[in-house]
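Hello Y.,

Per our agreement to keep a running log of every chain we model this quarter, I'm adding this entry. I've kept the format consistent with earlier entries: sequence first, then predicted structure.
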Amino acid sequence: MVLDRTDFGILRLLQNDAGLSNKEIAASVGLAPSSAHERVKRLRESGVLRGAHADVAPKALGIGLEALLFVETSKHERGVVDRFLSEIVEVPEVR
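Predicted structure for the entry above:
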């Protein structure tokens, strides 16, 4: 899929705020709402726009401490890494 300036504008807007309405997107990139809707739909269907996320305040979930950790395994074998990843996602505090 070839992206043009308008597509890049839409993607930039959605990266900054995935909750924008179609009307807000259209106004920001200078399109009619129906055209903006078709662009977003095309970006999703082609796999360029893969999803959206919600930025939730940790305190709202009762999380008082947030940390980013770097974990290194002693063996860099695929099985070891796969086992680590499957086990770590089972820990409720890990996002």
